[in-house]
Structures are given as structure tokens and as C-alpha cells.
Amino acid sequence: MPSFSPDERPLSTGSVLTLQQRRLRQILWTVIAAFGTAALMSFSKGSYTSVSLELVAMALLGIAFRWNQRGELAKASRLMLVTLIAGLFGLMATGEGLYDEGTLAFPAILIFAGMFGNRRMLWVLMAWLQGALVLLFVLHETGVIRAAAVPVDLQRLVMMAAILAAIGFFVWLLTSDMQRTLAQLASEKEALAESHQRIDVLAHRDTLTQLPNRTLAKDRLEQLLLQARRDQCMVAALYLDLDNFKTVNDSLGHAAGDELLCLVAERLGSGLRECDTVARLSGDEFLILLGNIHTEEAVATSAARVLQLLAQPFALQGLDVVVTTSLGIAVAPRDGSDVDELLKNADMAMYRAKDSGRNAFRFFDASMNESVVEHLHMASGLRTALAQEELQVHYQPQFDLHSGRIIGAEALVRWKHPTLGFVPPGKFIPVAERTGLINEVGAWVLHRACLDARAWRQQGLGELTVAVNVSPLQFHRDSIEREVANALAACQLPASALELELTKSLLVADAHHLSEVLQRLRALGVQIAIDDFGTGYSNLGYLQRFAVHRLKIDQSFVRKICTSTHDEGIVRAIIEMAHCLGLEVVAEGVEDRPVLERLQGFGCEFGQGFHWSPALADDEFRAYVRRFQPA
Ligand code: C2E
Ligand code: MG
Ligand code: MG
Known about the structure:
There is one protein chain. The radius of gyration is 45 Å and the shape is rod-shaped. Helix content is about 60%, strand content about 15%. By secondary structure, the protein is of the alpha/beta class. The relative contact order is 0.05. Strand 4 (about 315) and strand 5 (about 320) form a beta hairpin. The chain contains 22 helices and 16 strands. The structure holds ligand C2E and magnesium ion (2 copies).
């Protein structure tokens, strides 16, 4: 590596000025030293007039030195030039006039003016120097200068003036080239510095939100971990994922999605401490780093605040869009002492938060590791499950509580895994939703259920309906209506024999799109039910906005209807409310006769549950119907 002495550093950005200042300082030193030497020599010769002239020149140069130090470069160089010309002229006039060695300094003055001044200064100086020559000639002629050995003639003056003019012209050419090169160099340096800065931003910042990106976030986490080790405190990494970002993107468009991400970034930035870091890792994933933490409660408080901050509606394209967030938290040193481990564990905890119903935060715990391995197995297994025909649809009979007859069945998917055995849908449906496989699984179940329902009718089991669960994610694709229509047509099943159950929560941002899709499905003649009513985001808004026929009361309330007055109250209220809105009610999870009787008393129309039967394979279901209600 080359090393530079302080005065030989290469040019840095905007440093042409600094370089000129440095050079002027060096020149001033040299000129002061030259005048000093001249003063000593004059003193030794006893020519005291020269000594005093030289001392005055040195004093003026000293002032120029001060000005240069203060950055007043133009003023300093002008003073130096005037001093030089006046000093030289004085010395030459008191010395040997046009024969004086002072003329040797004239080109140096011109070069200096070319370097430091502008074109005008060069020509002004040239005029002064020519004037000085003429004046010296006049002084010779008038006999003021007598020291010269040989008298001067006009020819000598003209020669000297011509040489000086030629030198001036060369200096002008040279220095204007040099100044142009310097200016070009400086602007190139500036451009280079700017592009370095841009590269730095690109490498460390997310271009959409301007938040630190993954690289910078990891860097900051590394620093926080080092500091935490020194200060004996904790660091928390909060992995944040927007629960329904895809919905916003799909329903309102990518521009709205981008806008939402920027708003989220802004809100996160405003709601955290100055010293905390918010980074965007990818898509809708953000990372929050909290340093200098002493208790887990402090982390939990911050996490709760983040959830609350983001739960406020976002104004997007004239709509109030509500998004919820899942947060996974890993705390160092407990959950890992290096960056990658901590991020991995926070990510894992985030998935757990999603599984637990979303809009929640979860701290990492070691048992999550095992379930993640299981999740990975499941995700890859599920891909082949469809092709290998490992999925099956079972049917749970549904009853009319008034007549006691079977009116149809709910189709419930089953996965017979070659090594894990029967995997419950509660385990693999969330995996399918996360991996996007739910669309294929859903379409397959729909087709299978329609085929089987058609067969029931053909085999004289009666006008049974089939209820198929549909994940909210399937509604985000516009193909759902086509899929339903195709399945009905392919299986020759009347639309009235099919019911779609909307499972779990649907985003508020979906409302418009969803209600349109539901209207069109309803127009096909398909029945619509809201599943698991009473849990999650179930609210009256759904019922008013969407064209639904039925409500399914969640089994968690139904099961305790005889033991908990609270749950009994809820079930009763749901039934009454549904009736007021002209909707029918299906109670799920009816496990015994007292529950059934209580539901009948409340006027509930339909029911399903272990009191009658669990979900059965297709052939078992047919046998059950034949046994239960012979044609
Ligand atoms: P769900 O739609 O609410 O289905 C009812 C669940 O309750 C079923 O569990 C059923 O076996 C169970 N169940 C029925 N009667 C009783 C009872 O008396 N007592 C008790 N304890 N449980 C009862 P399953 O089959 O494990 O399904 C769980 C969830 O998985 C379903 O809840 C549904 O949300 C989802 N699911 C099942 N099949 C599909 C599907 O094809 N597509 C989608 N998207 N989701 C599905
Ligand atoms: Mg259901
Ligand atoms: Mg349900």
C-alpha cells in the first residue's frame, strides 16, 4: 500500500481548493525565505534601503500567509503578487535596473498568476510587469539608476518585453489546460464519490422503504450482540410478518401493496425508540432489533405496542385497510448468541404466532425446533400427497334437528401419510395455506366432494347436500367461481346441492372483492355458510355485507352449552341474531343428547357432531345413510 506524507496525499473530493491552499503556503514559505536571504545579503553589503524594503515585503507576505491559513485564498494570492511585483520593482530600481537578476522572477510571477488566478489576473500582471520594464527603462534613461555597468537602449527593452509577453502566452496556454484538467478531475471525483454513496445505499438500504436491508440489519445485530456481551444485557430480534399482505396486493394491486409497505415502515419507525432498528428483510417481512434490554417484559411491551400500532387502519386508495401482524421474538443470549441463529429462531417463533391464529406475538422456545422440522417434512410431503393419491375426503353427516333426518354432509379432507399415518387437517391445512398448495388441495377436495355427492343422488340416498370448506386464500384468486362452476358441470351436480363454508378470518380489505365473488357464487345457486362463527374475527359486518345463507356456530361454544351459562348465552344470542337476519344455523360439535335438546329448544335448525357420527370415508357414509334413513 502506498503511503503519503501529509502534503502528498492524493486529491480528495472538492480538494482542489485545499491543494491550492497547500501550494500557496509552500510558495509563501519559499518567497519569504528568498526575501529573508536577500535581506541578510543586503545587510552584509550595508545596503540598508534594500534591507528595509525586504523586511516590509516579508511582513506583507506574512499577512498573506495568515489569510491563506484562514482560507481567504484569493486575497492572499493577490497580496503576494502585489508584494512580489512591488518588492522586485523596488529592489531592481535600487539595484541594477533592467540588468538586475530580479527579472528572472518575472516568469515565476506569471506562472503563479496562471496557477492561482484567472485569465484576467494573468493579463493584468503581464501589463504591470511590462509597465515595470518601461518604468525601469525610464529610470535608466533619466539617470536615476546608475548602478548598471552598461547603459540600456530601447532595443533591449523591446526584447525583454517581447520575451515576457511570449512567456505570458505560454503560461496562459499551459495553466488554462492545467486548470481545465483539475476542474475535470474534481468533478469526476465528485461523481465517483456520489456513485460510491449510491452503491452504499443500494447495498445497505431497501429501495422501497429506505429502511436498512438484511445485510445492514445483520450488521447492526452483530454490533448490538457485542455491546450486550460487554454490558451484560439482552438483545431482542422481532421478526414481523404482515398476515394479509398478499390479499392487499391481489385485491388492490401492487402499487397499493408498495404504499402499504411504506406506511408500515413509517409507522414502525415512529413507534420505536431512536436506538432501535427497523429493517425490511423481504416482501412483507420486517425485522425490529431492540438493544440494551434488561427484562423480557420490556420486549413483550414493545411487541404489544407494535401489534397495536399496526392494527390501526391504513388509508389506501380511499379505503381503510386493516392488516394484522404476526411477530416472532428471539432474545439473546437465551435463544442464541449469533446473528443467524437468533434470526432463524425469531423466524420460527413468527410462524408459531401465525399458526396460533395470527395478530399475535410469540417468544421462541426450544420445542419449536422440532415442530419446524415436522413442518418442513409436511410441506414437502404434501406436494407429493396429491399426486400419490394420499388425500381422501371424509363426510360428516349433518342433521335437520327438527325432523331428525340427514340433510347432507360436510366434506373434511384427510391425509394418509405413508409414515406419519393420518395427519389431521388442523395440522396440514395451515401448511398448505402457507405454501400456497391450498389452492390445489382445495380444488381437488371440491371436485371429489361434488363427484361423491352426485353418486349419492344416483344411488338413491336422497337429495343430500355437500358442504365444502374453502380457505380464505382460495377466494383471493379470481378462479374460484370458475372452479366451482366447472366442478358442478363436470360432476353434473345441481348448484343447490353444494354449500361453501368460509373458514376462519377474511380481511377487511377483501370485503369489496369478496362480497362480489360471493354474490356471483350465490347467483350460480350455491349455498354459502360462515364457518366457526363466534371465533376469530366473526362479526355482524360479515353477515350484513356478504350474501350468506347459514352460520355455523363454533363447536367450542356448542360443546359447553349445558355446562357454561356464558357459552349457552352466546349460542342463544347467535341463533337469535341469525334468525333476525333471515339466516339458518348449523351447530357443530354436538356430542350428546342434552346438548342436542338444548339446541332444539333454542330453535337451531341443523347440527353435526359425534353424537351422531364422526366424519366417515365415502363408502362408510353411504352405509350410514342407508342404515339411518332407509329410502
Ligand atoms: P371445521 O370446518 O370447523 O370442521 C369441523 C371439525 O370439527 C372437523 O375436524 C370435525 O371432525 C370436528 N368435529 C365434528 N364434530 C365434532 C364433535 O362432536 N366433537 C369434536 N371434538 N369435533 C368434532 P377436522 O376434520 O379435523 O377439521 C378441522 C378443520 O380443518 C375444519 O374445521 C376446517 O377448518 C379444516 N378443514 C378440513 N377440511 C378442509 C378442507 O377440505 N379445506 C379447508 N380449507 N379446510 C378444511
Ligand atoms: Mg367447516
Ligand atoms: Mg367449524
